[in-house]
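Table S4 entry, Sugar ABC transporter substrate-binding protein.
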Amino acid sequence: MKHIQGKRVLSVGVTALLTAALAAGCAGGTNNNTNQGAQPGGGAAAGDKPFQGKSITFVTANHPWGEAIKPLLPEFEAKTGMKVNVQSFFEDQLTQKLTVQFTANSATPDVFMYRPLQEGKLFYKNGWVSPLDEFPNKDASYDFADFSKSSIGSVTVDGKLAGIPIITEQEILYYRKDLLQNAGIAVPKTMDELVAAAKKLHDPSKEIYGFVARGQRSPLVTQVSSFVFSEGGDFHNGNKATINTPEAIKAFTTYGTLLKDFGPPGVLNMSWPQAFGIFAQGKVAFITDANSLYGNVTDPEKSKVSDKVGFAMFPGGAGGSKPYSITSWGLAMNSKTANKEASWEFIKWATSKEVVLKTQQAGNPGARASVWDMAEGVTGFPAELVPIIKESAKVGVDHDRPVVISVGEARDAVGEIVQQVMAGQTNIKETADKANAALQAIMDKDNAK
């Protein structure tokens, strides 16, 4: 999850991806998918095998969604006559695999998992993914309108549908029920209430800290995004960088001040594992982060406060509650595939209501509103968390970082502002202006042809 000059924007972006991926390490393997699964949906009509003899290659990340979909494949193959050859790779190796093959103009894989907000724009700008706009509305039973607006926004590039969502996440507020109850504090609904509650509960002498979140320069960017949106700001407006606006500065100041004044020691160097770790030790009152990480604080084997954790909507600022609500993983089609119809049939099936129900029951948060409305669709999630996810998906913003090709560079520019607040800088306008100029330069380079 975790450069570029003029016309060389895309090629250098590829080099950066390859370098990062090669540093990742171990190799993933293939899977022959011999396990039997439940009845899939969204495929061809019963008894009809329009893809008899067709074969496609599907590349997945080593991700719980990939493990959930594999046992369902044999019935899809039996129903359509299609053979799906699956290869699985660790996350950064997946990027390496795809980059190498796409750079070589390979027609395989036909379908692949990808991270829309991390590499989606690069893949699309390089012509590696096939726009899918012509497909979703061909079959009314697919019900494309069932996908949340924000999830589709995450997989849209330059107005074109570059993929279909499979995994979503939103930023939420986690809190200690017992600490709030004992202090007579209501669950914060606004940013001001969160700051006041964190201040009241902060007691370092007892090793209780008011607030924790990601403090590392790049990792913090995705989480400060909801603060920015909720104050009415954004990282950019079209092709104009906007991280030095009053709204953005207020958001960066709030986030940085919460960590500086009410955070635990060492918070400047924390990413999500460290932040969740100290919360799970029972030492923090509040944490804001992705809902997908809830198991780190609700699992009794990982958390000392597993029975004391509450979930709430992200606190509202001047713009209301505007958490990010993103597609963290999607399915895309190789632009060079010779099997576009077969590839779409697979994507359609894998993202159909029936199959999303099954993968979501395995704990993979999907993008279909109808599945979240089913009692059987939410069995894999804490009951208190479900309405928070549903509401966040309705009001949330479709990105959690600058939507650029050079994501790493852009995140560093944004993160610098917050870290200066954490370091005690009281007036960050100058820092924000410099960061905004840096982000604008990144965007201009990315947009150069």
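The chain has 18 helices and 13 strands.
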